[in-house]
Structure formats: C-alpha cells, structure tokens
Design brief:
Strand content: 5-15%
Bound molecules: flavin mononucleotide
Shape: globular
Number of helices: 8
Helix content: 40-55%
CATH class: Alpha Beta
Mean pLDDT: 96
Strand order of the largest sheet: 1-2-4-3
CATH superfamily: NADH Oxidase
C-alpha cells in the first residue's frame, strides 16, 4: 500500500547538514498548527515548543561550543542513566560505523580531504548542523515524566512529518538539550518545565553525504510478538 502518509513515514530521515536559507516564521507556525493534532494523554497537550533563531540562537551555539571545547559534563533536565543492553549497543555501533564509512567514501569521491587533526564530534556538533532553526520541546514538571515525554515524542514525529511535507528537513536530537543551563540562558523563566528534546530544522543540503547514507531497520519479527 502507498499513500502520502506511508511514503512520508519512510522518506523522513534525520537531516544533519542544512542550507543557510532561512525558514519563514509563518511556515513554522503552519507546521506547528498541523503537529498540534498529535495525540496527548487526556488531551492535556502538555508539550511546549521554543523556536530558537537569530541572535539568541547564535549565543546558544557559541556557549555550546565553549562547553564542548572545555568538555563540560552533560547536565540535561532528564538523564539517561542505565547502560544499554548489548543488542541495542550493537545497533548504535552499526549506525556510527556504516555512516562513517559512507561519508568517507563519498568525500573521497568529491575530493574532500579528512580534517587533520579530527575535530571532536561534540565541538563539530556545536554549529547544530548549520540549521537556521532549533526547536526545543519541553514539558511541565508536575505532570510526570512518562506521559510528558510520550506526548512530546508524538509531537516531535508530527513536527518532523509536517516539515517533511513542505520540503524541510529535521533532526530530532538529544544532543542540543544536554546542557539545560545553557538553554535557560536564552529561554528564561523555564524552571517549571523539563527540556526534553531538540529538533533542528531547515532546508536540507542534499549534496552532503551525511544526508544520503543508507539507513537500516530491523525486521518486524525481531521486535514483535504475536500472541494468538
Ligand atoms: C530521542 C532521540 C534522540 C536523538 N538524538 C540525536 C543526537 O543527539 N544527534 C543526532 O545526530 N541524532 C539524534 N537522533 C536521531 C537518530 O539518530 C535517528 O533518528 C536514527 O539514527 C534513525 O535515523 P533516521 O531518523 O534518519 O531514520 C535522535 C533521535 C531520537 C528519537
């Protein structure tokens, strides 16, 4: 079966390099007006969205770079504490390996030489993939982490699909909420909320190999149990 929804589900991918072209605020409003139809627990619509651009975004990126260069330990509002089981770790390793191999091969074809010495991924990531916009999703502290995160997750995928439908790319990412205090410098009066996840948004640079590497998914029977 094929429909615009099924196609969008498969075509959307994380975009990690953007064109400098700005995204009009009206377009972001349109995307958010569509995404707000995401389900939420008892229709509480608990997700708050902060859209960072312009000068405050530049200040945030400069701070992020400084923290990354000084290797400041991460301090997000919500912490992932448990170590992954080997099966999950193996999938993560496969992503990093296949992506790096694809990029190296493509860059060699394009005549791009590897950077010497290589920049640390955190420092390189401080430019937020060159995106013109960064959306920060937050939840009120009092509603409880399971539903707050679940609502925000559904909202995030809805934003990504609504953006995709308009030729925009997104990268849902935890990396840009890893220093909650840096976010609060540009987003004051947010102590009553938890920052959950970030979404970079902009027009994709399709020439960048990082936006073109083949992605994989495990077969349905590897994660599904039918109990008949
Ligand atoms: C909760 C969450 C956190 C993520 N954090 C990052 C991140 O910090 N940096 C990044 O480049 N991508 C991040 N991603 C994107 C995933 O790596 C990506 O969705 C996954 O590899 C599947 O690829 P696809 O989205 O292109 O299909 C994150 C995605 C999710 C859902």
């Amino acid at each position: 079966m094929s429909s615009p929804v099924t196609e969008a589900l498969k075509e959307r991918r994380a975009i990690r390099r953007y064109l400098p072209q700005p995204v009009p605020e009206e377009l972001v409003r349109e995307i958010l007006a569509e995404a707000r139809w995401a389900p939420s627990a008892t229709n509480t619509q608990s997700t708050y969205v902060y859209v960072l651009s312009g000068e405050p975004f530049e200040r945030f990126k400069a701070d992020l770079r400084m923290y990354a260069e000084s290797e400041v330990p991460e301090a997000p509002d919500l912490v992932n504490t448990r170590e992954m089981r080997p099966q999950l770790k193996a999938r993560q390793d496969e992503l990093f390996r296949t992506r790096a191999e694809f990029i190296a091969a493509e860059e060699a074809k394009m005549g791009i030489k590897p950077q010497t010495p290589p920049v640390s991924p955190m420092v390189a990531g401080a430019d937020v993939f060159g995106a013109p916009l960064l959306l920060i999703l937050a939840m009120p502290r009092e509603i409880g982490i399971p539903y707050g995160c679940f609502d925000a997750g559904l909202f995030a995928q809805s934003i990504a699909l609504a953006a995709h439908a308009r030729g925009l790319g997104t990268c849902i990412n935890g990396s840009n909420v890893r220093y909650a205090e840096l976010l609060r410098k540009v987003l004051p009066n947010t102590e009553d909320k938890y920052f959950i996840i970030a979404i970079a948004m902009g027009y994709p640079d399709w020439n960048a190999p990082i936006n073109r590497f083949p992605r994989t998914r495990i077969p349905v029977d590897e994660f599904t149990t039918f109990v008949r």
